[in-house]
Amino acid sequence: MGKLVVLMFTAFVDMIGSSMILPLVPYYATRMGATGLTVGVILASFSIGQLVSAPSWGRFSDRYGRRPAIILGLVVSVAAYLVFAYAGSLTLLLVSRFVQGIGAGTVGVLQAYVTDAMKEDDRAKSLGWLSAATSLGVVIGPAFGSMLTVAWGHRAPGLAAALLCLGIIGFAWRYLREASGEAHTPRAARPHAGRAALLRVISHSNEPAPRLIWIYAVGIGAFYGTGQLMPLILADRFGVTEKTVGWFFMYFGLMGVIIRTLLLGPVVRWLREPRVARIGLVFLAAGLCLTSLSHSYVSLFTAFTFMPLGTAFLFPCVTSILSRVVPASERGLQMGVQQTYGGLSRVAFPIFAGLIVDHYGSGPPFMVAGLMVLATLLMTASLEKYVPAMVQG
Fold first, then answer.
1. Coil, strand or helix: which one is 151?
2. pTM above 0.85, yes or no
């Protein structure tokens, strides 16, 4: 549990730094003369950097250990924040977001660390706690970044994020230890292992691990990809502006923290991961579809409750089951593959949703995304045999 607390604190502080600068990117890019398409490309470059680096981070962590991979990822993030602070052109802004995505490619390593450290029955709950820590960072970070901009100018958030990241590197170096009982020893590299694992998700899509990765990819793309278009509905139907939109996203973050810390663990112990994942899919799909139809604050906030409830149930449980169906020596690689497909989904969904908005308005993308999430229920069949029933007594 102590290792999990250290990892949670590391992820929490890192996410504060990351979320400090994210809302500022469109403003910086627009001031430099960017078009809407250019802003979209700059925002998408983060996911592109994350998805191309995730399998490599996974292989690196399987071979040399989780701790070195996490610390090296933080070092890469420091460089990205410094470039962001002094970016005077759209090219440098693009580079800073891409490099930050490379540093953030260690998300799969963080998840593999948790699955290494915790007993099987505690993995979903522990992954939920890790996700709660990052959600809390998202709640705090954007407001902190805005305050720094007002107080010390546009370079302050990037510099502050770099300093935070340096501090957490020192903390991780001092307190973070390898999760497993025996340290990772260098293993012989497996040529093209990452490419083979990526292709296997497509060529063997009926196997348990690829099915879980597809469920994760569709769910995370539907939620985070279309979520970037949420301000369009809020502005069109409720008159929400950039001065007030932060409160809506803060509600999202707080709901995620509350559900992951208080509700997820007991529900998983009661129903086990496969059932909870299915419930998560239904809640997420319902929230997305209801958002598409919302014209009152009652329906809107019902949708805004269903979506974080769905993601809190879905993603930790899918990742926990994935850790059970793959060999321990390949967990880092498979978590990296999962993040790669999730990254592809986060790139594809906003582009696809944007095309729908151009032709049909701001609501339909959420309906389409919700129906796609609901369709992945078909992929959850027979997952129970990989998760033993909870032993009573």
1. helix
2. no
